[in-house]
Amino acid sequence: MSKGDSLVIGNLQCVVLDCPDATGLARFYRELLGGEVNRPDRRWAVNDDFATLHTGAGLVLAFQRVADHRPARWPDGEHPQQVHLDLDVPDLDRAQEQALGLGATLLHVDPRGWRVLADPAGHPFCLLRG
Q1: What's the CATH number where 37 sits?
Q2: Residue whose C-alpha is closest to residue 31's, from 130, 128, 98, 127
Q3: How many domains does the chain contain in total?
């Protein structure tokens, strides 16, 4: 293999978020991103402990129930983010208002023009002007 060639070991199947309520968090992200919760898919068995969201953009998010889930506390290193999503939005104020209405929590308004929120399970996500 020459310099510059890359070896692909696999393809991203989905992003999995730990949470206390798999279906509830899948529904939260459906309202935020659109898509279909628990669409039949041979790759996953969905149940009370595992839910999926197939978005219109083709991204699949999965949600796994963890009984002793400890939410992140942004930016506290003792409870790190572990994963977060960046969402491009046309109107930051409107997107923030809608996300808060769905159960998100505002964590930070950055003076450079983006917002950090947490989903109902405590996972941080950012709203950026798209």
Answers
A1: 3.10.180.10
A2: 98
A3: 2
Q: Are 19 and 118 in contact (CB under 8 A)?
A: no
What is the domain extent for residue 93?
71-130
Domain co-membership, 44 together with 7: yes
- The per-residue b/e assignment along 27-52, b for 16 or more CB within 10 angstroms, e otherwise, is bbbbebeebebbeeeeebebeeebbb
> Which whole-number Å values give the CA distances from 57 to 35, 53, 61, 65, 124, in the listed order?
8, 11, 11, 25, 21
Residue 2 binned pLDDT confidence (cut-offs 50, 70, 90): low
pLDDT tens-place string over residues 40-96: 998 888 999 999 999 999 999 999 999 999 888 888 878 777 778 889 899 999 999
